[in-house]
Amino acid sequence: MSGPTAPYIALDSAGPAAVDGRHIRALTFQSVRMEYLRRVLGRLSLAATGSRALVVGSGRGLLARGLARLGFEVVAADPSPAATALALDADDGLGVTYLTTPAEELDVPDDSFDLVYCADTLEITERPEAVLREAARVLRPGAAFVYDTVNRTPVSRLIYLGAFQGFPGTRIMPRGRYAAHRLRRPVELAESLDRAGLSAKDVSAFKPRDVRGLVRATRGRRRGTLTDDQLPELVDMVLEPESSPVVTYLGYAVRRELVTRSC
């Protein structure tokens, strides 16, 4: 199919009629991801120009290109060859390097990045400890690890296990992509970060300003009646740094000087 309102073919074997749910997430999360990143950069006095960033779980490369526009030298890593191909096709000459490599075994050198952003990964991997160890391995001492993920609550299970992959009218992900045991509370993730050699510094909740907008956007994109450009405004994600995360949250950690290398 072609055209601005054609449904996206899923990258995760959801079936030929399914939309690409990861792309929908990337589009609707982009504004809060960039807003939070700017806050982290300010707190750490990290200048984008002259710094290197790695986006893990980069999908079609939207976040990677956003970082490149800030001035970072960016590497975008994703385990899906199809996602890498789509990212290359969408590339607009910003100099992003696209790699097909899993988050659990990144094909990049030690101590080579000032920033790692982990997107659409921690809530689906069966090996979160390996993902975090790899992030710590490729970060320079004092560098930042930024992530967004899904809390484990009754509401998050209803949305991610039910609406996003179970209910026919709102399903945007293949069945089984999310599971309750893969969703992690902030305190659990902080403990895992510490074991990997990363010191947790902050957590910020984020959510749609009005959940009805998310429902309309999901159903409209699935039906092909909404374009990509319409989704972010309709969903309107907002940061809530003073609130406890009910569904989704962002956070960051800093790599400590000494990180234990695993064989």
Walk me through the structure:
This protein is of the alpha/beta class and about 260 residues long. The chain has helices spanning about 20-45, 60-70, 80-90, 130-140, 155-165, 185-195, 210-225, 230-235, and strands at about 50-55, 75-80, 95-100, 115-120, 140-150, 200-210, 235-240, 250-255. It has an 8-stranded mixed β-sheet. The longest helix is centred in the N-terminal third of the chain and has 24 residues, at about 20-45. The chain is globular. The termini are far apart.
Give the helices and strands, then pairings.
Layout (H helix, E strand, L loop, with lengths): L20 H24 L7 E5 L5 H9 L2 E6 L2 H10 L6 E4 L12 E6 L9 H11 E12 L3 H10 L22 H11 L1 E11 L2 H13 L7 H5 L1 E4 L7 E8 L8
Parallel strand pairs: 1-2, 1-4, 2-3, 4-5
Antiparallel strand pairs: 5-8, 6-7, 6-8
What would a concise description of this structure say?
It contains eight helices and eight strands; from the N terminus they run H-E-H-E-H-E-E-H-E-H-H-E-H-H-E-E.
SSE succession = HEHEHEEHEHHEHHEE
Which strand order does the major sheet show?
A: 3-2-1-4-5-8-6-7
**Number of E-state strands:** 8
Rg, Cα atoms, Å: 17 Å
Distance between the first and last residues' Cα: 46 Å
What structural class is derived from the secondary structure elements?
alpha/beta
Strand content: 15-25%
Helix content: 25-40%
Per DSSP, the total helix count is 8
Overall average residue pLDDT:
88
Biggest sheet overview: 8 strands, mixed
- Which stretches are low in confidence, meaning pLDDT under 50 for 5 or more residues running? 1-19
GO molecular function: methyltransferase activity
Protein name: Methyltransferase domain-containing protein
InterPro entries: Diverse_substrate_MTase (IPR051052), Methyltransf_11 (IPR013216), SAM-dependent_MTases_sf (IPR029063)
Domain Methyltransferase type: 54-146
